[in-house]
Amino acid sequence: MTESSEEDFIRLFSVHQRALFLYILPLVGNTVDADEVLQETNVIMWAKREQFQPGTNFLAWGRAIARLEVFRFRRTRGSKLQFLEEDILEAVAERSEAVSDQLEARREALRLCLDRLRPKDRELIRMRYAAGTSGDDVARQLGRPANSVYQSLSRIRRTLAECIERRLARERPA
Q1: What are 116-143's pLDDT values in tens digits?
Q2: What's the CA gap between 97 and 82, in Å, rounded?
Q3: How far apart are CA 158 and CA 63, in angstroms?
Q4: DSSP designation for 96
Q5: How far is Cα 35 from Cα 88, in angstroms, rounded to an integer?
Q6: Residue 55 backbone class (left: φ over 0; alpha: ψ -120 to 50; beta: rest)
Q7: What span, in angstroms and rounded, lies between the C-alpha atoms of 16 and 79?
Q8: How far is it, in rounded angstroms, from Cα 25 to Cα 73?
């Protein structure tokens, strides 16, 4: 693996940690076990990084490894984790993958739609969704009436929602 491809792998590895955790969590039932399975999944992914084909779906590759780790984890934990039968666990895993893929598609559509906003609208959204900032805080910072800021935010959200739905509709199979 070249230095550049290893850097790309590390980037993908880092970006998908949360998605992998959220995939594992419903399969094991609690955050402590999900963390443990994710760590084991990460160790295996790192060890097999040479097998990952750049340009393919990194998250799907990681979920396949995570699924096997969930099954291994359940076997080693014995009766403690027998709250789900194997076929039900498989159905939960498949549904989790589908939801994860849908969320990833929505997140990407949101990113693209945000890029298309006018700079002042994008800045207003950034200000509003900064940690711990309310619409009233933004209004004070901008010296605008709060209802004016809330109306602008509502208009921008509606624009984003419509843009996201158009993008997703184009991607859906006919």
Answers
A1: 999 999 999 999 988 788 889 999 999 9
A2: 21
A3: 33
A4: H
A5: 22
A6: left
A7: 30
A8: 13
Beta-strand runs (E) in the chain:
none
pLDDT in tens, 156-171: 999 999 999 999 888 7
What does the block give as tokens for 102?
């849908």
Contact in structure between 81 and 74 (CB atoms under 8 Å): yes
Exposure string of 137-162, with b = 16+ CB inside 10 Å and e = fewer, is: ebbeeeeeeeeebeebbeebeeebee
> Rounded distance, CA 117 to CA 89, Å?
42
For the chain, which domains are there?
A: 1-105 (1.10.1740), 117-174 (1.10.10)
- pLDDT for 104-121, tens place per residue? 788 888 889 999 999 999
Structure tokens at 57: 């779906």
